[in-house]
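Customer ticket, subject: "Can you confirm the structure for Core-binding (CB) domain-containing protein?"

Message body: Hello, I'm evaluating your service for our small team and ran a test protein. I'd like someone to confirm that this is what the system normally returns, since I don't have a reference to compare against.
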Amino acid sequence: MHVLTIPLRGDELALRLRLLDQVRDSLRRRRYSLRTEKAYLYWIRRFILFHGKRHPAAMGAPEVEAFLSELARRQGVAEATQNQAQRARRCP
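Agent reply: Thanks for trying us out. I re-ran your input and got the following:
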């Protein structure tokens, strides 16, 4: 798995950490495995970066479709992987 480093300004960092902390807490309350947690956080980061660091709450179905289409067309990601990315978007 690739490690993603994201250079952020102070406000962006605080917002991003809060979002990812919320997701992490939600997954842990539901007793998801650590491996699943890491995978979901990875896909959420990729989704955010793909859309120019916009907050996922400000996006909807068209942005999800654009992201999944990009994964399928240009990056050759398998359907199962796309499904995992889509499930990650739904957390929490």
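A couple of notes from the result: The radius of gyration is 13 Å. Residues 72 and 79 are 8 Å apart (CA to CA). Feel free to reply with more questions.
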